[in-house]
């Protein structure tokens, strides 16, 4: 079994950096010429001069909330806010939507989201069947993984989300080599298989993403005979970094330039210091340049013991802003505000995310003196409508929530 996906993973760091920096000026020029948004953002920038990380660091950071704002403002002319370079038609077979709502285009290149590298690192090989439990509805996750699996020669069963009993039945009958999806859903499937008395012995490996993958859950899966590996990807950028058999951080993908900056700025921090991940993707169809993910991480020293020579990040270490991810879905402070706007009796709210080992729970504390029956259920229904997630509702006295500006509190344990 070949350890590495291709020779790019083991080239010298100097050769990699030279190749990335050589590609950068043409990529920026392409974005300026064909992406109306970047024509504006990078107006006056000499693309030919952006051939080093120091020069790249002088360009503005575009953060996710700014992408959302531009999309919302410009949808009459472009659903992508002008960040795309391709129009609807044969070069854009799919459009996806992420909570916000943010729209993402998918192009025609094989392994468009560059997921094959992570799938290979998780142990999948050509000729195997993969049970893909990422959503194929609205969000790009299902397609991201499927196109990556096809690139390495795998067949995919599009399991999607929900229906754990049917998932178990399909696994028992089709005998896939492994699972791709969120780690919490894999745990649910395994528990359902146990309660049904239906063994699924073929599932021996997994690539998980979309939410935290704590060591406790990794060890639990290992006790069930499954080696689970994680990757870090976003709907805007595709793959950013992936775990290897060394289990020492996440190796950065070969198709992106990763910077870690001081939150709220575009200033790179020294290696080892925690900061916000800012990514430049060399995707000509959707050329996001210095895109601020809002996620925190840090560069690990040295190289991966597997021989891969790219930098590694520690993994997801929280959010630079209050936006957080629950069961694979982003939850934004603006969504909490939208819930409260529906109820004049509610004055202020704080969403608390708690739980451990893939058992995320949401509790919305709402300042209100309302005592009418069914009021909390109405709020719960609104949360479900806006975030697509369930939350417990607790009414608290007006003025009792802290005056610290915090709308979302992530109180989960990742130990």
TrEMBL record:
PANTHER family: BLR5969 PROTEIN
AMP-dependent ligase C-terminal domain span: 328-404
TM ranges: none
AMP-dependent synthetase/ligase domain residues: 123-280
Annotated protein name in UniProt: AMP-binding protein
Organism: Comamonas avium
Lineage: superkingdom: Bacteria
Pfam families named among the record's database cross-references: AMP-binding (PF00501), AMP-binding_C_2 (PF14535)
Gene3D superfamilies: 3.30.300.30, N-terminal domain of ligase-like
